[in-house]
Amino acid sequence: MILIVDDRPENIFSLKSILELHSFPVDSAGSGEEALKKTLKQKYALIILDVQMPGMDGFEVAEILSGNSQTKDIPIIFLSAVSTEKKFITKGYNSGAIDYIIKPIDPDILLLKVKTFVRLYEQNRELNLMQESLRSEIEFRKKTEQQIQEKAQELHGILEAIPQIAFTATSAGLIDFVNENWYLYSDSITKFISSHPEDAPIKDLWNNAVMSGRELEAEVRIRKLKSEVWHYHLLTAIPIIENGAVVKWVGTFTDINEQKMAVKRKDDFLTIASHELKTPLTSIKAYVQLLDTVTPPETETKPYVDRTLMQVNKLDTLINDLLDISKIENGKLNFDLKETDFDQLIDRTVEMLQQIYPSRDITREGRAGVKVMANEVRLEQVIINFVSNAVKYAPNSKEIKLITRKQEDGKVYFGVQDFGIGISRADSENIFNKFFRVSDTDSTPQGLGIGLYICAEILRKHHAGFGVESEPGKGSVFWIELPQK
Ligand code: ADP
Questions:
Q1: DSSP alpha helices (H): ranges in 357-450?
Q2: Could you check whether 162-255 and 260-329 share the same CATH topology?
Q3: CA 239, CA 215: separation in Å to the nearest integer?
């Protein structure tokens, strides 16, 4: 918008007509005072200012405008009929004006000057806007940087206070902070703590985690500088993710040596105890079996002998399970796989199970019709375990269904279905873990929670898939998936 300031309406009229003819929006004021008021309310791209006016003259108006921060940048063109003398022109420039036009006005010259000034004004305004947004961008960045620094300091303070070894790293995996504890194990921030020669190198674990962007959790043995003693530590590193990208890593080493040693002592005890129990038990079992064969069926003592044999068998299974556990712990649960007819293996197992559980209907559905690679004794152990659990955890139903089928991918599916208490989804996820039992109530049968753990280990050695599908109150299907030979 252009403001024309002149005390004569006819002058305003003629100027306005010329400018509007060329699409310039125009406003007008009849005196210097009115012009000043208008500039406070409206932004103008240019002011065309008559020098000679009654009251405040053009120079005074220009002086006031140049002293005001809001209006100082508005270009002014003075209009004058008389002030052609040099001193007047100089006065005009001193008071902040940019150009001068002498009356009578040549419309072409006026338009040329107006166009130039308006363009300059626009460019100036754009530059100012750009400068303003740059300034606020810089302010914003400064503030964010300060906030990040404050956060980092807070985090470092916390990491110094914890008993673990702690470090942080950039998204690219470059360590940028370590706490004091780090220097007990390494002499430099740039040198990763070394692990025991038999454990995975920490640098490799770290690089893998950084490359995958996934949380790292590993047990490693490390030792203090100049110390000979290795201590088990749990190394964890968590990526901090913002807007879907890793921005930082925070890691710790926690000393778990005490726990590891306690677990080892417990495992050693279990191994020794079960070995020591096994020898006398084997003799007892042999004698009771002998007694059983020589006791005529109709005698009074026969039921007692039967019951003793049953309890001895239970004890034998338990001790065998404990021995299996220690074998698994020591990596010694090894066995060969041989070509095995899966259906025949199930036939034999079912026959045996039917004798152990005469009150249950163990039904069969489907056949595999193929051979698999298996260790018969161990695979049988898994099936017996599944069926024993089905008996134990479905006390009020008679039927246990064994389902076999050959899948489209060639694998053999085998499932043991019961119609008992079932398992919740959350518990199903842990059911194959060592010592896991669904939380006990008075009515849940007793057990140690090791049977399924052993099954899982045996099945892994068969390269088999396994799992459970269950609905609380309706029953469960424990299944395995064996690759065809
Ligand atoms: P145990 O039966 O000796 O406790 P297992 O390892 O065989 O140990 O089973 C672990 C847990 O899984 C059991 O304690 C039980 O809670 C649950 N479970 C196993 N089989 C079944 C089943 N067929 N139905 C319901 N729960 C089961």
A1: 376-392, 425-428
A2: no
A3: 6
Name all residues whose Cβ lies below 6 A of ligand 1: 389-390, 393, 418, 420-423, 431, 436-438, 447-453, 476
CATH class (in words) of the domain with range 338-482: alpha beta
Q: How far is the CA of 337 from the centre of ligand 1 (A)?
A: 27
Tokens of 314: 């239970």
> Which residue minimizes the CA distance to atom 13 of ligand 1?
437
- Show contacts of 281-284: CB within 8 Å, 24+ apart: 281/312, 281/315, 281/316, 281/319, 284/312
Spacing, Cα 385 to ligand 1 middle (Å): 9
Task: Tell me yes or no: is domain 162-255 CATH 3.30.450.20.
Answer: yes
How far is ligand 1, taken at its centre, from the CA of residue 415, in Å?
A: 15
Structure tokens at 105: 């006005």
CATH architecture of 2-128: 3-Layer(aba) Sandwich (3.40)
Spell out the domain ranges in the chain: 2-128, 162-255, 260-329, 338-482
Quick one: which atom of ligand 1 is closest to the CA of 444?
16
What's the rounded Cα separation, in Å, for the pair 431 and 447?
13
Residue 375 CA to ligand 1 centre (angstroms): 23
Whole-structure pTM over 0.90, yes or no?
Answer: no
Reported as a single tens digit per residue, the pLDDT across 30-85 is 999 999 999 999 989 999 999 888 988 888 898 898 888 888 888 899 888 765 55
Indicate the pairing of strand 245-255 with strand 231-242. antiparallel
CATH T-level fold of 260-329: Helix Hairpins (1.10.287)
Cα-to-centroid distance, 262 and ligand 1 (Å): 26
> Best of 424, 437, 439, 466 to mutate for ligand 1, by most ligand atoms within 8 A of CB?
437
